[in-house]
Design a protein that fits this description.
One of its GO terms (molecular function) is potassium:proton antiporter activity. By secondary structure, the chain is mostly helical. The chain contains 13 helices and two strands, in the order ααααβααααααααβα. A two-stranded antiparallel ribbon has the order 1-2.
Amino acid sequence: MRRHIARWWTVAVPALALVALALTWGRSLSAVTGVLVALLLAGAVLAAVHHAEVIAHRVGEPFGSLVLAVAVTVIEVALIVSLMLSGGEKTASLARDTVFAAVMITCNGIVGLSLLAGTLRRRVAVFNAEGTGGALATVATLSTLSLVLPSFTTSARGPAFSPAQLGFAAVVSLAMYGLFVLTQTVRHRDYFLPVATPHTEAAGQGTGAEKHAPRPSGRTALTSLGLLLVALVSVVGLAKVESPIIELAVANAGMPQAVVGVVIALLVLLPETLAAVRAARRDQIQISLNLALGSAMASIGLTIPAIAVMSIWLEGPLVLGLGGTHMVLLALTVAVSTLTVVPGRATLLQSGVHLGLFAAFLFLAISP
């Protein structure tokens, strides 16, 4: 009976969320409708996590983490593109703000929460330094190339790339992301599998994948894939529907407009956050790190090429370069993440440092 109820809500909630999205898109929401939309958004997030775990169990790691990261990012990129095409000059920095927020949320927020969940459970979180280090190096390179260099180049005015520079950054970002996916899924897949520990082996979860539950059938996995896409479209779309309410609340609180982008990014990344924390609670820290760093990498590697193509139709400047405060936060994040990853083991201290950096990012977004 309990399993039947679980199956029912994971199918019904994404469908209801999609219907709510169709009914509310482009319309002003009342207070009651806004609350209902927020509840459906939360339900769609939980349903997305469930279906992502079904797919991950079927295809195994690291493919499961890759599916969720890429699916969320593709839909997020589509949302950014649609907003920039319809928003005019006020959205000139939207891509930069969204990508930077995604990097800080994933590399500090999700990583910090995952390490916290893992270390509270087993004192020391263990993961594969080779795979995680390669992912971190790719994220750091893409972030610097796309978000830092535009503030120092001289071919275009302001913190922006010239068309040739933007095209180069787009090609390199896409090529680097493709190379990472090849490394993760084919050439060195074992670097991204959960590390076996006495606790995970006792639970049947080590590098041999989850032995504790029967593997879903191909039909079940395909159904979950379709429902995952429906849930993610609903999450991103309902976040956009809620954005006017968020903008009004931010304005009434006297906070900067950039806070709106941070709140929307937090909502969009909720499925990955919950999936990562749940994996960490099962002592599968590697899966959590795959989700976090893979999401950051996909956000840059797919957004920059999309923006480069879209710039053909955009009028006005395309601001990509970070300001000084954000550059300092990015540099500190890369340095701290490197020290976290190199040993292949982390304690409660490392989780606290990452969460402290994440708190600093949120505070400086509110009070720049």
